Amino acid sequence: MSASGTPLRMRVARIDALTAAIRRLHLVAANGAPLPAFEAGAHIGVHVPLGERTQRRAYSLVNAAASSQDPTFNPDHYEIAVLLEPASSGGSRWMHALRPGDEVDIDAPRNDFPLAPGARRHLLIAGGIGITPILAMARALGAAGETYALHYAARDAISMAYHDEVGALGDATRWFDGGDPRHGMPLAETIGRPEPGAHLYVCGPGGLITATLAAARALGWPDDALHSERFAAAPTAAGGAEAAESAPFEVRLAASDRVLVVPPGTSILDVMIEAGLDPLYDCKRGDCGVCTTQLLEGEADHRDICLTGDDHARGAFCPCVSRAKSARLVLDL
């Protein structure tokens, strides 16, 4: 949201077809005002009307080339790319139905996937639509004169969004597997042994992220040098067997001082939505980290797959899937 806590009203200024299933949208302020600045890795929350409620869908911002160098940088537009997912809840279909001139509400940029400050080298790995924050990172690093390498995987060139833009970068490799991951990016060779000050970032389908992080850890990379953001859901849904076996517990939202009761089989996020709140989220399966908040009190039962053990130790908490071991949690919401 904006500094005043209200959504930003945006107008669709331009739409491009990047692939048969991916559209690029340029959003400008409907009132012509300057837009809030952002850094590579940031996303916006688009307010999407689905059913009786307006829900938020998170989309990474692509046009972040100058923001890491100039703290006063204010973009004249936000660029996002949206993959049409026919099996989803309908958010991507709604986004694909937009036309130039249509207006939407968004929350101001938020960054849960930032570049590591002080890193000496950056290894960027993307798959599919996961190129959006990764391309922003590469552009920002290139503009700042920092060392990086980018590896981008897709089925083939025709389904690769930003194919030409990635090819124009100084140190980028495009990998095509023809639909068989065994013929794609050689992860161990691509990642290599850890080096002092090196950080790895990966975004894309869950399978790529899981394989990349596993390969990096097997090569000796420490968790605090590994960063990920997911754009695909894990195969198990939130609120499954584990959630159904959980006991009810209370959650106090510190900012509003509201107390909610979370029953078995229902997530904290869904209880907040039912209570008329409007939390930011995307996957609802603990994959993406968009809903991450801070645990202030209580003992958590962490069930996400996007946060590291160090993140959990620092209090990071995903209310879309994680629950309580204690009778009460206090969240910074």
Automatic annotation (TrEMBL):
Domain of life here?
Bacteria
Question: Which Pfam family, an example, fits this chain?
Answer: Fer2
Domain 2Fe-2S ferredoxin-type span(s) in chain numbering: 249-333
Gene3D superfamilies in UniProt: 3.10.20.30, Nucleotide-binding domain of ferredoxin-NADP reductase (FNR) module, Translation factors
Cross-referenced InterPro entries, in alphabetical order? 2Fe-2S_ferredoxin-like_sf, 2Fe-2S_ferredoxin-type, 2Fe2S_fd_BS, Beta-grasp_dom_sf, DmmA-like_N, FAD-bd_FR_type, FNR_nucleotide-bd, MRET
| Keyword rRNA processing listed | no
Q: Where is the FAD-binding FR-type domain?
A: 5-116
Sorted alphabetically, which keywords does the UniProt record give? 2Fe-2S, Flavoprotein, FMN, Iron, Iron-sulfur, Metal-binding, Oxidoreductase
One GO MF term on file is: 2 iron, 2 sulfur cluster binding
Read off the CDD domains from this record: fer2, PDR_like
UniProt cofactor(s): FMN
For this entry, the protein name equals 2Fe-2S iron-sulfur cluster binding domain-containing protein
